[in-house]
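Handoff note, outgoing to incoming analyst
You'll be picking up this chain. Sequence as last confirmed:
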Amino acid sequence: MSVRTRAKSPLRLTLPGAAIKRLREAGIYCTPEISLEFQRVDKRYVLRGRESGGAVRQLGRYVTFCGEQGQRLPWFLRPDSVTPNAEHAIVIAPALVSVEMFRVEHTYELLVARHQIHAVKDGARPRVASRAVFRGWQGQLPLDLAKKDRALAGRIAPEFFTRAGEPRQLPAEYVEAVQAATFGASCGPCSHSHFLIAPKAAAITDGAPVACAAQRQIAGAEVG
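Most recent structure output, in case you need it:
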């Protein structure tokens, strides 16, 4: 049993009003916030995130989560929904890294952020401490991951540059999660998780990468 607190992480992509309006009109619902929850049985605080989002042809937005070292995490539950491009899976963990992607055609915005629970003082409710690990502006990926170049979906990410035109390297431990978020921001109508994995799969693989259903279908098609 758990009780929800009001503490939330405010660190997320800041999008212009026009972009938020277009996402709403397209029926894309992405929820990158992290909430602080208290588990009464274990008497501890945990973080709760929601892998969510999806895409239409022209734009997409997606957020997924991983461990502090980039490892895949098991989802806590996967809610059924009649609405695609919305919530796909819920994760609960002592610490989380969020990977949020926003796409317009072939241009991408990226925020990778680390979220931890920091105690304030004895007996007081802790706070969520968040910091940006990587922020990418106007990344470029001139591929159609939804259709023509779908075989590369989940295996490629946009390229980001400094203002001076020099390439910026993604943090190596989060490359796989960024590739999954890139896929999610081009997947529509999306109704599945792209990076969180089933609890049984996580136990069997002991942290090894496991492809989502869509990625397994792509791999099967290539082998055939």
